[in-house]
Design a protein that fits this description.
The chain starts with a helix and ends with a strand. The relative contact order is 0.23. The strands form two sheets. Strands 2, 3, 4, 5 and 6 form a five-stranded antiparallel beta sheet that branches. Strands 1, 7, 8 and 9 form a four-stranded antiparallel beta sheet that branches. With 244 residues, the protein is an alpha+beta fold. It has helices at 2-13, 55-75, 125-135, 148-176, 195-198; strands at 26-37, 41-52, 83-85, 89-97, 102-119, 139-145, 180-189, 214-215, 230-243.
Length: 244
């Protein structure tokens, strides 16, 4: 009986301990990338305000304002098709009577937003800017953005560079740990704040995730239409099996 017990104890001690966390056999790296691009599109944002005591007159003047902008463009040889108008709004103007604690009707105000978008290289861009400054008394805002072709190219470049960065880091880690990299087991790109979710072994990655691109806002100065470069960044998380 004593020999049997000794054998059982010895057998139990010789069984290797296997971790329940599969990520103890994994190398995880975060690849980062950034790309600078000079925007190709310029946007002019104009908002006209029209006030009148009569609702229908206010609406009529607002529509006439849009027609006036189009006429100015035609007069200066500029394509009026560049002008985009979203739905204008008309709201009642009131003032609070402190004596009666009631709102007093003052009339109506229409807001007419107009957007004009064109390429920075368009020879008429400067002419549009000059026309807006000299002919329209309204709030004007100008900014730049990447064209759709630029955005698609930037996405490809950002992801390529981010993957290369993650690969490079993983190879350095493996070399210093005296191990080899196995197959890639997980891939995630986007917000680096989700790294914690990525390293949970029971977390399923969502397919079709959009590339996260952030960029600095570039605005025109009052005297020039030359855009500044916009910096875009993204990150990629990769996980490899470790081969000993």
């Amino acid at each position: 009986m004593r020999h049997i017990l000794t054998f059982i104890v010895t057998l139990a001690i010789s069984i290797p301990v296997v971790s329940q966390d599969p990520f103890c056999e994994t190398i995880v790296t975060q690849g980062k990338s950034s790309v600078k691009q000079t925007p190709e599109i310029i946007n002019f944002f104009i908002e006209f305000k029209v006030e009148h005591s009569d609702y229908y007159a206010c609406s009529s003047i607002a529509l006439a304002t849009i027609d006036s902008v189009r006429w100015r463009f035609r007069q200066n040889g500029i394509d009026e098709g560049l002008i985009k108008t979203s739905n204008y709004s008309i709201s009642e103007m009131t003032e609070r009577d402190n004596r009666t604690q009631r709102n007093i009707h003052l009339g109506y105000q229409a807001r007419v937003p107009i957007t004009i978008s064109t390429e920075v290289s368009d020879p008429y861009a400067s002419k549009i800017f000059e026309l807006i400054q000299t002919s329209f008394k309204s709030n004007v805002r100008i900014d730049f953005q990447l064209s759709q072709n630029q955005i698609e190219e930037v996405k490809k470049t950002l992801l390529k560079l981010a993957v290369e960065d993650a690969n490079s880091k993983a190879k350095i880690l493996a070399e210093n740990l005296n191990v080899e990299l196995g197959k890639v087991t997980k891939v995630q790109y986007g917000d680096p704040r989700e790294v914690r979710n990525f390293t949970r072994s029971n977390y399923d990655l969502i397919e079709g995730r959009a590339v996260s691109i952030s960029g600095s806002v570039s605005r025109a100065s009052i005297t020039t239409l030359k855009p500044e470069e916009i910096t875009m960044t993204t990150s990629v998380m990769l996980a490899w099996d470790i081969i000993y």
